[in-house]
């Protein structure tokens, strides 16, 4: 069963099919196809396409014919695995996961363990020999469904059993989780579609300039259980370090856990070395897969995996979100490895990332004698000072503050965008707070311990996320010099050769048009006809660079060359 079998709304990403369109199946399903085509072990899946999502919003309901195609897709999984959806022997459970064409990690919904009910729980208990495992699967699914499909706002995570979760959902929304797995599936697909228009997803797209109506595909995949027993677990692996870009595996592993446990930040996983000690064979297989995906993808990869009873399964691989420092290091190193040429390497680093990298750092000696208020894992480096707030709404109301949370979730993204830094009590280097902060290039310290929120809220602090520390007060900072960084020097040399305009350090004696003196408010100044050289902060920003190029300017004078060069190259690439 492949894309050529006449489905209108579904695609099954088989290894032997032609490469599917990312715009149609989303990045997640595309990565499943790629991993299968490379011979890697992937649980079978099918995908509801982005066309179905668009049709859902047009008609405010699942499009005609999709219900029947969902049945056919599930039958395909049953045939692959010898299991039955809703069955009382060898039951099939599935995950229902979002997957936009453009990666939006953590912004849309995922529902795990779908297909569970009382009868399926008993079947899982009989098959696994572990009634506690089966009960936990049922409890988790009920919570997922209640929160993401029915809209329950109560905290269901710490409730002891399925009955307690059901009671909390019923009291909050007056509805019950259906026992019929087919009804569960249809409602879950609709809920994932709706999550593409959620507040957090809209805020993320606006921040990154993505189309507001960008929908999502829905990947439906057979479950593998990292929480099955002591020989099972889940984790995230980066093929290169997403913090500093070094060519080494970077990740975490959570024994007896599911993927949601790692990204939620509620539990702090173990270093990947734990997997190497417990299962050296699985660890070696994982590293080999990461190397393969890095090489084939020609970029650092973010890989989700699950181990079930000592067997490795890959769930997703995508280009890794990374800090500005890592983006620069990876781009240069890929040139040295012969993977990229310098021109392509310049497309992997943005002007904004370099500006971020050139932000101030704590001045030498400034931290000596400063009061240390909290410490944890530096998940996204940088330095920022501000007043601490403890809700995303407060952060949005006070841009430039420091947002401190027990842990973050997709519902906090609008506050994370507004904050100058993020600090959490819980979570590790692959938690939601860490991944989103790296994508935003926001300084972030995670895992600072219980009580951090209460200890910091209302205080003015300095977050040194490079060292993983939070200090009292506002500490002095000093600027970074791009000429002293070997990677930035190499990028600058490549950019000078490719740029449509000369960018030089200020200090020239020739006639210069000064945009800062001529500008009024936020409007771009009018550049006089025939102007050859300009200076001023206004010509360091992308729109100022664009205006200078459009006016025929030949030289831009600035304190920092590389961000302007990259902005000029990007504009030239778009218009040529």
TrEMBL record:
Keyword Transferase: yes
Record-linked Gene3D superfamilies: ATP-grasp fold, A domain, ATP-grasp fold, B domain, Phosphohistidine domain, Pyruvate Phosphate Dikinase, domain 2
Catalytic EC class: transferase
Coiled coil: none
Keywords: Pyruvate, Transferase
PEP-utilising enzyme mobile domain location: 399-468
UniProt-listed InterPro entries: ATP_grasp_subdomain_1 (IPR013815), PEP-util_enz_mobile_dom (IPR008279), PEP_util_AS (IPR018274), Phosphohistidine_dom_sf (IPR036637), PPDK_AMP/ATP-bd (IPR002192), Pyruvate_phosphate_dikinase (IPR010121)
PROSITE patterns named among the record's database cross-references: PEP_ENZYMES_PHOS_SITE
Record-annotated Pyruvate phosphate dikinase AMP/ATP-binding domain positions: 23-62, 68-271
Catalytic activity, EC: 2.7.9.1
GO MF: pyruvate, phosphate dikinase activity
Protein name in the entry: Pyruvate,orthophosphate dikinase
Organism per entry: Amycolatopsis thermophila
């Amino acid at each position: 069963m492949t894309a050529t079998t006449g489905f209108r709304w579904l695609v099954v990403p088989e290894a032997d099919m032609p490469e599917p369109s990312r715009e149609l199946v989303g990045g997640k399903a595309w990565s499943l196809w790629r991993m299968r085509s490379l011979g890697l072990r992937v649980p079978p899946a099918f995908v509801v396409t982005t066309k179905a999502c668009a049709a859902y919003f047009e008609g405010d309901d699942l499009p005609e014919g999709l219900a029947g195609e969902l049945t056919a897709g599930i039958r395909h999984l049953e045939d692959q695995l010898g299991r039955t959806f809703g069955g009382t022997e060898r039951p099939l459970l599935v995950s229902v996961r979002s997957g936009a064409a453009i990666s939006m990690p953590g912004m849309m919904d995922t529902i795990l363990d779908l297909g569970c009910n009382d009868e399926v729980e008993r079947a899982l208990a009989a098959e696994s020999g572990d009634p506690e495992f089966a009960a936990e699967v049922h409890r988790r699914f009920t919570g997922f469904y209640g929160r993401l499909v029915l809209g329950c706002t109560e905290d269901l995570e710490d409730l002891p059993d399925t009955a307690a979760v059901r009671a909390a959902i019923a009291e909050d929304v007056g509805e019950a989780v259906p026992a019929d797995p087919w009804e569960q599936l249809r409602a879950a697909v609709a809920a994932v579609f709706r999550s593409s228009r959620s507040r957090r997803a809209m805020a993320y797209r606006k921040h990154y300039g993505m189309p507001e109506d960008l929908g999502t595909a829905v990947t439906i995949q057979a479950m593998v259980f990292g929480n099955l027993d002591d020989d099972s677990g889940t984790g995230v692996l980066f093929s290169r370090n997403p913090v500093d870009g070094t060519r080494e595996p970077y990740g975490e592993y959570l024994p007896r856990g599911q993927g949601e446990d790692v990204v939620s930040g509620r539990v702090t996983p173990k270093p990947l070395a734990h997997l190497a000690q417990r299962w050296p064979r699985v660890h070696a297989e994982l590293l080999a897969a990461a190397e393969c995906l890095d090489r084939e993808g020609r970029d650092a990869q973010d890989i989700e995996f699950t181990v079930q009873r000592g067997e490795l399964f890959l769930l997703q691989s995508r280009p890794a979100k990374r800090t500005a420092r890592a983006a620069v290091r990876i781009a240069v190193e890929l040139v040295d490895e012969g993977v990229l040429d310098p021109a392509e390497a310049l497309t992997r680093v943005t002007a904004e990332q370099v500006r971020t990298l050139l932000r101030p750092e704590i001045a030498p000696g400034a931290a000596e004698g400063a009061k240390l208020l909290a410490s944890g894992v530096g998940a996204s480096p940088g330095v920022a000072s501000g007043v601490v707030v403890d809700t995303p709404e407060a952060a949005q109301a006070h841009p430039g503050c420091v947002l401190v949370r027990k842990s973050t979730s997709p519902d906090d993204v609008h506050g994370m965008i507004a904050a100058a830094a993020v600090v959490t009590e819980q979570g590790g280097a692959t938690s939601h707070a860490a991944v989103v902060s790296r994508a935003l290039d926001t300084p972030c310290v995670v895992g600072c311990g219980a009580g951090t929120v209460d200890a910091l809220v209302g205080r003015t602090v300095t977050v040194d996320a490079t060292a993983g520390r939070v200090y009292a007060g506002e500490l002095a900072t000093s600027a970074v010099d791009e000429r002293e960084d070997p990677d930035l020097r190499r990028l600058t040399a490549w950019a000078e050769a490719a740029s449509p305009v000369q960018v030089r350090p200020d200090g020239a004696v020739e006639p210069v048009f000064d945009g800062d003196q001529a500008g009024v408010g936020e409007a771009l100044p009018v550049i006089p006809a025939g102007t050859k050289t300009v200076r001023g902060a206004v010509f360091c920003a992308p729109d100022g660079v664009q205006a200078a190029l459009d006016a025929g300017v030949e030289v831009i004078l600035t304190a920092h060359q590389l961000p302007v060069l990259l902005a000029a190259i990007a504009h030239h690439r778009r218009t040529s």
